[in-house]
Amino acid sequence: MKNTKALLVIDMQKGSFTPKKIRFDTDGVVRRINELAKLFRELNYPVIYIQHDGTGTGAFEKNATDWENLDDLTVKSTDIRIDKYANDVFYKSDLLSKLNEMNIGELFITGCATDFCVESTIQSALTKDYNVRVVKDGHTTGDRPHLTAEQVIEHYNWVWQNMIPTKGQIKVETTEQIKAILP
């Protein structure tokens, strides 16, 4: 039985946070991710940083500046890094094999962009029967043509809270709620 927890940090990369790509509450989201990452490390749970690898596309080229994680994110050498190639982190990446190897059964999901990569990963994790905890105040996005970023985040938090999961469960909780339940 898979019984270990992992924190996923999706696409918190410099190329997604530019003056032309304003994200909602960036500083707060980074601070909360850092708090959870610190706690996960203290509890010996893995912290996994997912980075979009757009090699060959001209954007998010591996090891280029826009591919790098934000400077304010606290990434340790013991953390795991996984490259991703589509919105869904599981698509053609090493994530599933790494999670299986570490006996992970519950994913705590944070990152950027709520309505693309975070959403796709949550849906994919549910169809793979993971228990999912979305960090309600730990993901961000930008304004969209018909919704503000804050509305997008609020909408997806509502969607996820009301989903019918497969064998796993899905919960949407704040950073403080999650910190209170972790052993």
Automatic annotation (TrEMBL):
InterPro entries reported in the protein's UniProt record: Isochorismatase-like_dom, Isochorismatase-like_hydrls, Isochorismatase-like_sf
One MF annotation (Gene Ontology) recorded for this entry: hydrolase activity
Residue span(s) of domain Isochorismatase-like: 6-144
UniProtKB keywords: Hydrolase
SUPFAM superfamilies tied to this protein: Isochorismatase-like hydrolases
Keyword Hydrolase (UniProt): yes
PANTHER family: ISOCHORISMATASE, PEROXYUREIDOACRYLATE/UREIDOACRYLATE AMIDOHYDROLASE-RELATED
Protein name: Isochorismatase
Source species: Roseivirga echinicomitans
